[in-house]
Amino acid sequence: MTQSSPFLRLGTRGSALALAQAYETRRRLAAAHGVPEDDIRIDIIKVIGDQILDRALSQAGGKGLFTKEIEDAMLAGQIDIAVHSSKDLPTVLPPGLMLPAFLPREDVRDVLISRAPGGLAGLPQGGKVGSASLRRQAMVKRTRPDLDVSLLRGNVETRLRKVGEGAIDATLLALAGLKRLGLIDRLPEGVTATIIEASDFIPAVGQGAIAIECREDDTRTRELMAAINEPATERALAAERAFLHELDGSCRTPIGGHATVTGDRLSFAGIILMPDGSEAHDTTREGSVTEAAALGADAGRELRGRAGPAFFAALAGA
Ligand SMILES: NCc1[nH]cc(CCC(=O)O)c1CC(=O)O
């Protein structure tokens, strides 16, 4: 096949993590369909979210900051699929687009990166923690109200370096990202990683899962993607995304949601918090994988009711 007519055209952001995910997707597609990897073209597309480094993404418009330009290229027919971190995907996609596949999920847990050993409990009194995630900021404050939690953006390597150099005492990262970048085994000098269990620190909706997006009317691509979809991850994501959809249209709610699938059973845990950790509401669901989305949505409605209008009004003003 010539370069002008590849088997498939894949669009991705250009970050190291995004590229690692694109390569994994290409590897799986090539193996599933018996084509050379070179026949799957990778187009790097710049997105606005990569240019915003000075403020929280929730303050910069929130939704779709990492996806819009890639989705536009797909709607214009320039690429066939987009590869995303599920965590960065809005719950409502632009009209005409869908998620035909989720790859087998990486580890969903968060990792505390610090110089002092012992995880959150080991951090010095009043220590500085940097994170860009409202969920991580709120959960840290909930367990350690004394810590000084502030905004920290930038790529994974920069954040690791800031901890190593002592600019901050700790940060939190997704173990999935560290593994995909091969960084978990080569952390900077003096820096330790402590895995935090998902039951103590509920991960972000979609954490660790790679999502493939395509056009609804693109039958060929949809059929090709079916071969790399992992149903257990797809079901877990259906529950988590339904939960998120029920609770947050703004991307400004500190929120965690995590589903696991064992055979035909699904377990879900979800939490919403005030940004300062002063208030939190959590719940769980157990049920059949066939009702994944309904379980997640129901958990979301429960928390919406329990938190009450005052909680959301306070968030809007936060
Ligand atoms: N928002 C950035 C982002 N999007 C996905 C990951 C990690 C990989 C994943 O969760 O799948 C990260 C970095 C992080 O949270 O440490």
Would you give an account of this structure?
By secondary structure, this protein is an alpha/beta fold. The chain has three domains: about 1-105 and about 210-230, 3-Layer(aba) Sandwich (D-Maltodextrin-Binding Protein, domain 2), CATH 3.40.190.10; about 110-195, D-Maltodextrin-Binding Protein, domain 2; about 230-318, Porphobilinogen deaminase, C-terminal domain (Double Stranded RNA Binding Domain). Helix content is about 30%, strand content about 25%. It is built from eight helices and 13 strands. The strands form three sheets. Strands 2-1-3-10-4 form a five-stranded mixed beta sheet, sandwiched between helices. Strand 12 (about 265-275) and strand 13 form a beta hairpin. Helix 7 (about 230-245) packs parallel to helix 8. The chain is globular and about 60 Å long. The model has no long low-confidence stretch (mean pLDDT about 95). The ligand NCc1[nH]cc(CCC(=O)O)c1CC(=O)O binds near residues 88, 174, 177, 207 and 208.
In summary, what is this structure?
The chain has eight helices and 13 strands. With 318 residues, the protein is α/β, with parallel strands linked by helices. The ligand NCc1[nH]cc(CCC(=O)O)c1CC(=O)O binds next to strand 8 and helix 5.
